[in-house]
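Provenance

Sequences were taken from public entries as deposited. Structures were produced by running a predictor on each sequence independently, with no templates supplied. The record for Macro domain-containing protein from Pelagibaculum spongiae is shown for reference.
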Amino acid sequence: MAIEIIKGDLVTMQVDAIVNAANEQLTEGGGVCGAIFQAAGEGLAEECAEQAPCPPGEARITHGFDLPSKFLIHAVGPVWEGGRSHEATVLADAYRYSLLVADANHCKSIAFPAISTGIYGYPSVMASEVALKVCKQFLQRQSESIETIYVVLFSEDDYQIWQESWTHLNR
Ligand code: AR6
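Predicted structure for Macro domain-containing protein:
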């Protein structure tokens, strides 16, 4: 079982499930969500609409359509409001919920973006600490089918930040 932190484009990941940094209505947005909707193509919006809304901290599963992944897991992270609105709890819940959904669907591999760290404004360093801790604990304690968790960072800066957090967490 492993956690792999990589730099790249989430939509190209050949995994069982790709996680979308979604909004509560599960509609096409900007950021990685926009890229996923574009790459998935027709059918995704309709399947998402059937499952909406999805509150922050939860996730919904759809097919991957034209993406290389079988499933898409739409996770809604918190909007950053300075850290006093339980953002860390909600972010941890969003990762955990996604992992549970993937596991329940017998996924062996899953790829996450850095949920909430773009349009939703969550500082990347703090988000990495929350996310990586949840992923590590899940693999150690709960996972039934998931063997590999990828975290895919889009920018070099984020990649460095998440690598450092990972090293720190395992010290
Ligand atoms: N691959 C990997 N990471 C990416 C990609 C990509 N192709 N594109 C962007 N990122 P964001 P949020 C990174 O804004 O903060 C949408 O409109 C990006 O650099 O996509 O959770 C939704 O519909 C950042 O580090 O998601 C919601 O309304 C990370 O993905 C809202 O934005 C997340 O940034 C969600 O905001």
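The chain has one domain: 2-170.
Residues 7 and 84 are 30 Å apart (CA to CA).
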